[in-house]
Write a structure and sequence with these properties.
single chain, mainly alpha, 12 helices, 59% helix, disordered N terminus
């Protein structure tokens, strides 16, 4: 049976595709079995891939907890690599910097964290007519761009050596056999990706049974960041959830409620345009958009 490369390879692919995660491309879907035992060829050398039968380890709560231990060990291994002198240390130091920015951006997209609080404060300044806030909004937008960190080149052999070290460290931390480790490296990241994008998913594309998905789902918020998988935005989650639409809570002040609604309606129409202008540092467009917003909000005072 064809099996993919270990999960830790996602870090090595990060320079080319920061959003990449385990098992990028070339994955052969399979029906998941219920047999936990796997046979490994005793003649396999430590550097070679183990020869595994087609069976699959059953994903349980305990297996997911062990997998989390493996991912935590991966983070520690990368931190150690980043402290090495020379090209390897520079490479992984940049990888960690980019990951840190990506995490901030993911939190921001979830409308939480200090960057989101800063954004809200900037919006209030803009609503009050403080044009100096435009510069701060530009700076915030730029600080949330993972691509602002340039990752240096690292020769292939050094990447392979680091990948092998991390893979061994992770597998040992989770106490997995080589075959179970390869199997989970294909299935758990895919299940996390499916449920991260749609918490109500029922089609798991052959990567797990509903019972296995139920074991993974409570840990998706912990697993997704470690696998560099983005969670669905609150707006998308609301669209996918079978819940009735609700009106924003009233502040008790009709004028404030009017202004909040005006800002929300304006954002729906112009947010993409504002973000594009911010990224391009197009001050004329930003000033124009801000003026339009102030005009809409001023109607609440009439």
């Amino acid at each position: 049976m064809l099996r993919p490369l270990p999960v830790c390879l996602s870090l090595l692919l990060l320079a080319a595709a920061p959003a990449a995660h385990a098992q990028v491309g070339g994955i052969v879907k399979k029906a998941t079995g219920q047999v936990t035992g796997k046979k490994t060829d005793s003649t396999t050398t430590p550097a070679a891939k183990p020869k595994c039968d087609p069976s699959s380890i059953v994903i349980t709560n305990e297996v997911v907890d062990r997998y989390l231990k493996s991912l935590s060990a991966q983070e520690a291994a990368v931190q150690k690599l980043a402290k090495q002198p020379g090209a390897t240390g520079q490479y992984y130091s940049a990888v960690l910097q980019r990951q840190a920015i990506q995490k901030r951006k993911d939190d921001f997209d979830q409308q939480q964290g200090p960057d989101w609080d800063k954004y809200q404060a900037i919006q209030k300044r803009l609503m009050s007519g403080d044009t100096t806030a435009i510069k701060d909004q530009l700076a915030l937008s730029q600080s949330l761009d993972p691509y602002s960190v340039q990752i240096p080149q690292l020769d292939w052999q050094s990447q392979q050596n680091a990948s092998a070290t991390m893979d061994s460290t992770m597998r040992t931390a989770g106490a997995f056999s080589p075959c179970d480790w390869q199997d989970l490296g294909e299935r758990i990241p895919r299940l996390v990706q499916i449920m991260a994008q749609d918490p109500n998913a029922t089609n798991f594309q052959g990567y797990g049974t509903p019972k296995e998905a139920a074991a993974v789902q409570p840990k998706v918020p912990q697993l997704a960041p470690l696998l560099h998988i983005s969670l669905a935005s609150p707006e998308r989650a609301k669209k996918q959830a079978p819940a009735a639409a609700t009106q924003p809570a009233s502040s008790g002040d009709p004028q404030m409620d009017c202004m909040a609604k005006a800002q929300a309606d304006w954002s729906k129409k112009h947010q993409a345009e504002l973000e594009a202008a911010s990224k391009a540092q197009d001050m004329n467009t930003i000033m124009k958009l801000n003026s339009e917003l102030q005009t809409e909000m001023a109607k609440c005072s009439q």
